[in-house]
Design goal:
- By secondary structure, the chain is an all-beta fold.
- It contains no helices and eleven strands.
- The strands form two sheets. Strands 2, 4, 5, 6, 9, 10 and 11 form a seven-stranded mixed sheet that branches. Strands 1-3-8-7 form a four-stranded antiparallel sheet, with no helix packed on it.
- A hairpin with a 4-residue loop joins strand 5 and strand 6.
- About 35% of the residues are buried.
């Protein structure tokens, strides 16, 4: 399994920005996907964005298109989620996940980070 460690969460005002980081280790090839999910209290886990590590191809959920951007540092094996124009409804615990496919569904991912809290105040 890939080991994942998230960081970069915190509290911001509406309209602000945060950049989350996911450090990956323990992989044997680049043929896997890294994705960001979030879960707010009382709600199901929501897939936000994914990247195929081998090529850097990305996909985004409609809810974050145009606001969130996924990028990759291949040298350090880190993926970033740049979050702009944050809204109070973005408040959630954000998780990084690794899996064999890049669909934005949690069942496709077998390795998960510990999560990092993002709070957006109005």
């Amino acid at each position: 399994q890939v080991q994942l460690v998230e960081s970069g969460g915190g509290s911001v005002q509406a309209g602000g920005s945060l950049r989350l980081s996911c450090a990956a280790s323990g992989y044997t090839s680049s043929r896997y996907c890294l994705a960001w999910f979030r879960q707010a209290p009382g709600k199901e886990r929501e897939g936000l964005a994914s990247i195929f590590v081998a090529t850097g191809d990305t996909r985004y959920a409609n809810s974050v298109k145009g606001r969130f951007t996924l990028s990759q540092d291949n040298v350090r094996n880190i993926v970033y989620l740049q979050m702009n124009s944050l809204k109070p409804e973005d408040t959630a615990v954000y998780y990084c996940a690794a899996g064999s496919w890049c669909r934005l569904v949690s069942s496709d991912y077998g390795s998960w980070g510990q999560g990092t809290q993002v709070t957006v105040s109005s």
